[in-house]
Amino acid sequence: MDIVVRQMQAGDRAVWAHMRNALWPGDGAVAHAKAIDELIDGLLAGSAAWGFIAQAPGGATGFAEIAIRNYANGCDSAPVAFLEGVWVEPQYRRRGIGTRLIAHAEAFVAARGFRELGSDTQIDNAASQAAHVAWGFSETERVVYFRKLLKPPAG
């Protein structure tokens, strides 16, 4: 399959929003549009977050987003490049497209001096965990997060 991986551009907004919504359906169209605008504006301003698209002759097949975080659990370096999300159209899965996206992102951030790529997934997402292992990631820790809602101060 003839796949090209490249950095996202302003002209990719619609397909990018479609793919983001498929990966993160709870975020909503407005939140996705805002995030895409921030990423595109950041590219113009030299920000430290990037989107990548995998394209076949018929159109987009997947995407990945990378951001630079001050810290990432399990990583030794700081700041660290972090895989915020990766998604492939269902009909194109298990064809190496995710691997191509990850390899492109790795080369991109390595060329900028980073020596680690962090990532995470939900503790019950076995498919994503298996994909990460296949892409060469090593599991570093498991965490259960908690929160407690606080009451506003009286008065």
Proportion of residues in helical segments: 25-40%
Tally of extended strands? 5
CATH architecture: 3-Layer(aba) Sandwich
Main β-sheet, in a few words? Answer: 5 strands, mixed
By secondary-structure content and strand pairing, the structural class works out as alpha+beta
Summarize the structure.
With 155 residues, this protein is of the alpha+beta class.
List the helices and strands and how they pair.
Blueprint: E1 4-7, H1 13-23, H2 29-45, E2 49-56, E3 59-69, E4 80-88, H3 97-110, E5 117-119, H4 126-134
Helix pairs in contact: 1-2
Can you describe what's shown?
The structure is a single chain. α1 crosses α2. β2 (49-56) and β3 (59-69) form a beta hairpin. This protein has a single domain, classed as Gcn5-related N-acetyltransferase (GNAT) (Aminopeptidase, 3-Layer(aba) Sandwich), CATH 3.40.630.30. The chain has helices spanning 13-23, 29-45, 97-110, 126-134; strands at residues 4-7, 49-56, 59-69, 80-88, 117-119. It is globular. It has 155 residues and is α+β, with helices and mostly antiparallel strands.
Question: Descriptors for this entry?
Answer:
4 helices; 155 residues; 23% strand; alpha+beta; five-stranded mixed β-sheet
